[in-house]
Design goal:
Length: 102
């Protein structure tokens, strides 16, 4: 993962295959299958910067019906540790998705 500092000091993460990430918001649309708090390993980074995430074996059971979240925008995920807890503290990792922890 590469981290750049944007305007106003916000940290912007560029994910790579193998990074652990956590969803900060529910998926859009009439049929929501990935929810805020779900987490897993990045399996692919798409050309537009969105990521495919393997959820099975991480925040969901290994034999879960939905094993992956596809084309999740980078703005909806943040880095996490091996337990699914956010890694970055303080200012939100991506465009103000989490309040400063002071």
């Amino acid at each position: 993962m590469r981290i750049m500092v944007g305007q106003g000091g916000a940290e912007i993460c560029f994910y790579e295959q193998g990074d652990l990430v956590r969803l900060t918001r529910d998926e859009d649309g009439p049929l929501v299958t990935a929810f805020a708090g779900d987490w897993g390993r990045v399996t692919k980074v798409n050309a537009d910067g969105s990521v495919d995430i393997k959820l099975a074996g991480y925040s969901r059971a290994k034999d879960a019906g939905m094993i992956r979240a596809l084309s999740v925008p980078r703005s909806r995920v943040e880095p996490c540790d091996e337990s699914g807890r956010p890694r970055l503290r303080g200012t939100a990792a991506v465009w103000g998705t989490r309040r400063p922890t002071g």
